[in-house]
Amino acid sequence: MSVELEECIRTVFEEHLSESVVSVQEEDVCSGVTRLLDKRRQIKDVDKVLRTQRREFEVKRESLRQRREELKKKEENLKDSLLKFDKFLKENDAKRARGVKKAASERVVLRERERELEQLHTHIAALQVKEEKLQVRVERFRVYCEFLHTTLKTATKFEDVGQLVARFETLMSTREQLLRRQSEMERQRESESLALRCYISQQNSILLQDNNTLSQLQTELDSVLSHTLAQESSLKLIQAAAVKETHLLSQIKVVSRNLYHMTGVTGTDQGVDGDDTVEQLEQTNIISKD
């Protein structure tokens, strides 16, 4: 109920009470009875309006209660979603930590492989230099071929020239395999890093949207609570006005009963029920006119 309606009802009650007191004190008995009858009718009209407003208020309050329950359910669902999302983020952080640890381990392995590769490069370069020198020597000093075979026989590492060539080819094949493995690992690392950045960006966007939704729901909840408090305050004012109205009605009944007793009809056949205020007022009015 609006503040203007409350002020209007309060003013009507005050005017009714003020006019009733003035009429009882200053006007004669007949005029006071007539005014009391008018006030009775006015009170009935006001009571009818109050009952109508009260029914409307009950409907609004029930609607607000249902809305509050809906908001409470939405809030609980949102809390569940946030808990699930928080759990998801923690699991994702754990996966990312494992991925970072794995990448660090692979980088260590890669550096070890690079060191081995450098050693192999050094070894291969040395072998190539040695091979070139051997070729030069073979070409330039064919006469020493027999001496070379004799020397290889005394060596413990290689038994003949064929073994030396086979060792060189093995090292070259190993080098190519390591280079291919290194290239594959680099491509895999770049792909995983890109996928991780995209996933983090998507999760940040989802988190921002959830935060905005939560803020909007909180604002709506605060507005509904504020409106409910205002409605409850209005209900208290209406109840206070109803108490005043009941008190005024009790005073009217007492005055009506006293006026009726003053007419002296209570002892005759025309006596009416002591609780029938309207009939008492009408009998008093008829007798006063006579």
From TrEMBL:
The keyword Translocase does not apply. Keywords: Coiled coil. Residues 36-152 form the DUF4200 domain. Residues 54-130 form a coiled coil. Signal peptide: none annotated. InterPro entries: CFAP_domain-containing, DUF4200. The keyword Coiled coil applies. This is DUF4200 domain-containing protein. It comes from Hemibagrus wyckioides.
